[in-house]
Amino acid sequence: MRRFSPINVTAVALGLAFLYLPIAIMVIYSFNASRLVTVWGGWSLQWYAALWHDEAIRDAAWASLRIGVLSATLATVLGTLAALALTRMGRFRGRMLFSGMVYAPLVMPEVITGLSLLLLFVALDLSRGVWTVTLAHTTLTMCFVTVVVQSRLVSFDRSLEEAAMDLGCPPWKTFLTVTLPLIAPAIAAGWMLAFSLSLDDLVIASFTTGPGATTLPIRIYSQVRLGVKPEINAICTILITIVALATITTSLVVKRDAARRERAALGAQL
Amino acid sequence: MVLAPYLWLVLFFLVPFILVLRISLSQVALAQPPYLPVFDWSAGWQGLRETLAGLSFENYELLGSDAIYLFSYLKSLQVAAVSTLILLAIGFPMAYGMARAPRRWQPVLLMLVILPFWTSFLIRVYAWINILQREGLLNDALRALGLIDQPLAWLATDTAIYIGVVYSYLPFMVLPLYAVLEKMDDTLLEAAADLGCPRGRAFWLVTVPLAVPGIMAGSLLCFIPVMGEFVIPDLLGGSGTMMIGQTLWLEFFSNKDWPVASALAVVLLALLVVPILSYERLQQRTLEGDR
To answer: What residues of B are in contact with residue A10 (Cβ under 8 Å)?
Structure first.
């Protein structure tokens, strides 16, 4: 039977408390009126106002946003293609190498990926900036997209595609009208994941960036090294809110989609 | 279909590693780029031969002769191994509790574990500075409880590194464990109980062996990246022995010694080859079926 037993509830509750308490504390202290980060001085929005006037933070946020959208979009296209190749193409020449290259970046320590990409950009004599960070983030995040889309494709009912083709639908049209809509939620989730990973990355961006392309994590990091500041609490709270809203929206979309599919399947049975 | 991602990964993943290997055999130089010899495309074969002749193993000899590097690798190994064990000890009960929860609760619980995983790593590490600093909330809480008189130093210690690593990587451990435990067939435990097996024994004889793929996946997902971790030890750790990610960062950004940084990366990669390949086998098995 699946039910709450006291030990299990305790384990889950303690685990979740451990995950959320530090973040909750930081969010609360971002509204602290006191300049001293450890003393509570009442509620205030002043650090959010200070952020608004901080040009360096605004520039960094803008750079991060551009890199995030660009690299997530590129990564989604490449990652989806890679997922289709791995699930649909069976054995092909160099498959071992390909799947090896797809899964390795998921666990590869970031210092290694960052350093190696920088050496490539130097060897190619590319001027470093927004573009090189975008290329680097695309490489990292496309692998996450692949895994997300791939797990959807593995549980995919191929008979739907076969039915369309039996009825004379050409392969490209089958792909566009049957396959793509069915894996669309996974693709959307993949994009979101790629975007938030790009928005989050410090190490790879530090290696591959150049003058004039300071991303938000690089900016936050340089501030954090100087000590805890209430403004940092505020910017972190904003970022967390954005990511949390996006994550919840994506999962609701995926859930609604699953519910619709279930209803459709039920309708077919009746 | 496969061509675009294939070429992309060859250019941006495989070729860069070859470059790291090649530059780890070069010497540092006050030039742009800061290493010698530089391969000159226009010189063709002759240039390639000259470049190859200029390579040497000096950097690796340096890594072997200076204890600082050896200690860095050992420290990384220690932090990665110990935190993986702590993560298993915390993550397993949590994943087990989630998998045993009523069905309709599970999506919510899953969401609650995934959410921090999508939240910035840097921010989550930073959140702990608030808590662990000398005048921070942990010391306040402990003093309020009467457990300590004087504030303890938490920040800049190994304890802080372990807290940061366990905190940041917990979702990576819980999710694969949950995935296998959730699929587990309850009737197996009922069968064990019917045959007179006490529940504690059934846990070790039935549940744990069935969870092995999840234990492996979770441990590898934590152990491998923690070995090269930079942000956590840099922000929470002390000035004592550095982890290898920090040493590499220092050689690259402060000392501008790209060849030594490359050599450090090559050795780190060599240490991780076996775990990375086992992780890949596991991924291929779960996502592609056994081919």
So the answer is: 97
